[in-house]
Amino acid sequence: MELQLPTAPPPADTPPWPLHERLDWLKAFTRQIITHERALTAAICADVGKPEWQALTGDVMTLLAACKWHRKNARRVLRERAVGRVWAFLPGTRAVIRHYPMGTVAIIATWNYPVQLLGIQLLQALLAGNRVIVKPSERAPASQGLLLDLAVRAGLPAGRLTWTRATREHGPALLQAHEQGKVRLDHVVFTGSTAVGRQIALWGAQQLVSTTLELSGNDSAIVLADADLAVAARSIFAALTLNSGQTCLAPRRVLVDERVYAPFVAELEALLTKTRGDGAGDGVIGHGLAVIDHASAQRCDSMARDAMAHGGRELAPAEVSAGDVPGGGGLGSGGPGFVPYPARVIVDCPPGCDLATSASCEHFGPVLAVLPVRDEAQLLRLHASCTQHLLTSIFSRDASVVGQAWALVPKLVERGSGGVSINDCVVPGGHPGIGITGHGRSGWGTSRGADGLLALTRPVAITVTGWPRLPVGPIAPAMLARMRSGLRWMFG
């Protein structure tokens, strides 16, 4: 379809935007977010069905923390960096690295944290000095539309930001507009599924346009024998139920040392039991859950049923009948709208079931597999059997750098983990200075944090050569011999 923008696309010759003015804009943007917090929170709840407290803490407050961190650290991150001279080879040359804008950055936004994720990507792209075109998520038009409007109200110069309509079709249309010469894109940031990420990666390769792909996570939480089981169970369960399990950093399986397996399962069961019955729960976690649509609910139910068919056992079984799940005759087989779906924990999962270890396990909801492990070798094998790792969690009372948890870190990274959290799940990933770096089927490139800000710039090396200068013509045999004899002294 034809790309339809509310204003003309950013022109390629938009004047440079000084860093001090970008920081002034960010300060004004922060004030806009604070002033309109209630409207933003309400729009998030209406768009994606979050509880108000989760919309406030997980989206608005996390974005505000990122704004504050960037206001304090952006100058340091983006500053010119001197490169030391190489006296033995280029004695008369000095060099610096400067970070310049990439040009026009397209952001194809996602819905599960509609204000947080888009907001951080947006402020980083603009703070790096780029022009930005956003394709809002079709699932979050109100919240993301308001966020973009607030960015403009904060005093953006003309031509710095524009956006498409919030429809599914406008993502491909934006990329096609680049192919047709209607819009120039210098970089594309995409957050979403691995399947769509592959398509964007292929497009980027064909067009020679760089991409940042923050794709699906399907990670593990690891409970060691010395873990505080109450802390581990509560942290993992909170991650399972936060945003109804629709968090790419959340664990999909728990690998538990068999020596503490039974008491850990008992801790999880107690938490689940609180969320059953009248749904009152503990007032904090686990109740009022709803996934984004019928297809997602059906996928979650299919994974849970398959795990139980292979011998798994559901803790505090949820009342999910065939009529409650899309395709079962109750809610129908399709259509928009949130679908209530309870937290489900399947213990004793055999490694052969998709929920436990399959690379195809890509459900996006509150369903968790729990498996006992004999030793580290089995733990690492089960963890590596799934190939989407964004934030692996380890629980151990010994969090010292010489403890077992830290000893596991390089082994997990070797098997694809993009980040490791010790004694917590998900929440530390919201630190504004930390980047999210995908690997393999979880994407590539870094978003967020200092590395994410730098990733939206072009590092340009600038050299200045004075005296002494290396000879550029033929070297006399005697001089060549002296240079050879001095190699050990110069470079040894």
Summarize the structure.
This protein is of the alpha/beta class and 492 residues long. The chain has helices at 19-35, 37-48, 52-78, 116-127, 141-153, 170-179, 194-207, 229-241, 261-274, 294-309, 354-357, 376-384, 404-414, 449-454, 477-485, 487-491, and strands at residues 81-83, 93-101, 104-108, 131-135, 161-163, 187-191, 210-214, 219-223, 251-257, 290-291, 313-314, 339-340, 344-347, 367-373, 392-395, 420-422, 436-437, 443-444, 446-447, 457-465. It has 16 helices and 20 strands.
Structure, explained:
This protein is α/β, with parallel strands linked by helices. The chain has 2 domains: 19-215 and 446-459, 3-Layer(aba) Sandwich (Aldehyde Dehydrogenase, Chain A, domain 1); 219-432, Aldehyde Dehydrogenase, Chain A, domain 2. Helix content is 39%, strand content 17%. The chain is built from 16 helices and 20 strands. The chain has helices spanning 19-35, 37-48, 52-78, 116-127, 141-153, 170-179, 194-207, 229-241, 261-274, 294-309, 354-357, 376-384, 404-414, 449-454, 477-485, 487-491, and strands at 81-83, 93-101, 104-108, 131-135, 161-163, 187-191, 210-214, 219-223, 251-257, 290-291, 313-314, 339-340, 344-347, 367-373, 392-395, 420-422, 436-437, 443-444, 446-447, 457-465. The chain has a 7-stranded mixed sheet with strand order 11-13-14-9-8-15-16, with helices on both faces. A 6-stranded mixed sheet has the order 5-4-3-6-7-18, sandwiched between helices. A 3-stranded antiparallel sheet has the order 1-2-20, with no helix packed on it. α11 links the parallel β13 (344-347) and β14. The chain is globular and about 85 Å long. It starts with 18 loop residues before the first helix and ends with a helix. Mean pLDDT is 88; it is low at 278-286 and 326-335.
